[in-house]
Structures are given as C-alpha cells and as structure tokens.
Prior knowledge:
Layout: H1 5-27, E1 32-38, H2 42-57, E2 61-67, H3 73-84, E3 91-94, H4 104-110, H5 122-129, H6 139-152, E4 160-164, H7 171-180, E5 184-188, H8 195-199, E6 204-207, E7 225-228, E8 232-234, E9 242-244, H9 249-252, E10 258-259, H10 266-285
Bound molecules: guanine (GUN).
Amino acid sequence: MNIDGKALAQELRDTLAVEVKQLKDERGITPGLTVVLVGEDPASQVYVRNKARQTQEIGMISNKIDLPADTSQQALLDQLHRLNSDPAVHGILVQLPLPSHIDEALVIETIAPEKDVDGFHPMNSGGLCNGDPNALVPCTPQGCIMLAKKHLGDNLSGKHAVVIGRSNIVGKPVALLLLQESCTVTIAHSRTQNLPELCAQADILVAAVGRPEMVKAEWIKPGATVIDVGINRIPTDDGKGRLVGDVDYAEAQPVAGAITPVPGGVGPMTIACLLKNTLEAARRFG
Ligand code: GUN
C-alpha cells in the first residue's frame, strides 16, 4: 500500500492553520517566515514559490528576499543580521544550494538558532544529537518519521531501521530521530558493503541517496515500511522528463508493506514541517 504524503501534509496544515489563529487571538502574534533566495536556479524558484503560497494559506506572513547570483557573501550575512533582529520574523530559511563563492556553513551559522526553521544550525543539530526537546528539527527528517508512524503507529521501538545516505540535511538527522524512537539504526552509504543484503534486514528503510530507482525489490524485506526521500528527474522520450525516487517503485511496491510514492510522499511533508517549525519558533520566541 501507499503512504499518502499529500493527504498527511494537508492534515498537518489544517491543524497548523487552527493553531496559527489561536496564537493570533491569544497573544497577538502572527508567525512570519522569510525565505532568502540567491540566484535564479529554476528548481529553487519553484520550491520557494510553493513555500510562500503554503505559508500564506495557513495564515502566516510570508516574505521573500531575492538576491542576484553575484551577491557578495558579506551582503548576504548583513541581510541575515537584519532578519535576526527583526521581531516580525520568526523563521529564516536560506534556500540551498548557494552560489559557489558563498560559504554555506558560515551562512547557516549566521542565522539565529531560534529562527533557524531548517534546523541546520550547529546549535540545533547538536541539540537533536543530545535529545534536546527544544532543538528545531530539520523538516524532511521530521516528515519521514510522521510518514512511518502513519503506517506503523506511534511505537517504532525495537524496529530495525536502515537509512541509506549520510547527508546533514536528511541522512544523519533522520537516523538520530529514529534512534530517539528507540529503533536499532544502521546508516548505510556509498562505501557500505553488501548493501542489498543489509537493506533486506530493514523493518523501516529510508532511501536518501539521490540515485534514481537504485533500491530494487530484492533489497526489501517483505512487509517493510519504505520511505523514499529521492526526487530525481529522469529523461523521457517526450523530452519532459519524469520524477522518480531512489526506490524502484514499480518493483518495490508489491514487496513492501507500505511505501511512499514519488511524487506525493515525502516532498509535501517537508514544507508542512517547515510551517510547523515556524509556528513553533513564533510560539517560543514571538
Ligand atoms: N534545498 C533543498 N532542500 C532544502 C531544504 O530543506 N532547505 C533549504 N534551505 N534548502 C533546500
């Protein structure tokens, strides 16, 4: 069966819209999210537009700052300092990737940790690592856990989770969240040996490698819960291309107990969790 990320994201946004209204009525605070986009990467422009629309739809204030691709690092840092001290801004997101002349780590460290709704600041990633409940948690990993729980229920304790991928944005944080849920966690990556056999032991398999349809049916334990984080565009005869995940969906679907489709699985949950983090930041520091 499929785990419907689109429906779950809609449910979450509906709940958030009610909570945003409550925060306005009770404390006079309207959560504000500012997204900073440097350059004109077409994929980033689509993401940023979607974020802005969904932010407004649940009653929060959305601001977008467009900077040219040749913006200096210092100009970007100055902009972030202004946003850090603006009380109407509760969440700041700098869309990645950044142009190569800008130091990504420095930019992330410049965002005030309490406004870092991506959860990428070392204060937040350190907090997640130490189990600090106040850490802002990266959005895609949060979405993965919610999707797994949608199928398995709230108790993931004792399950063997295999995460393929070790990025700071998805692989590492999702592994830490699964550990927090008392899963037994294996992190696999490009140098892992016997990857198919290892994956076939997973009760929960999270694929976050960015390789189109890499995970095949034999890699999946019958009945496993498969969370596919990949969003890869592959060429098609009509020239339009097609979005596929890191899992070969057609093969894997009959073997898995439940699987997230691409599109319509993890993707919609990421933005919904970004809105959740923004509300959380506004509640705590508004
Ligand atoms: N680019 C792709 N995914 C993300 C994300 O989750 N956050 C930011 N800031 N940029 C991204």
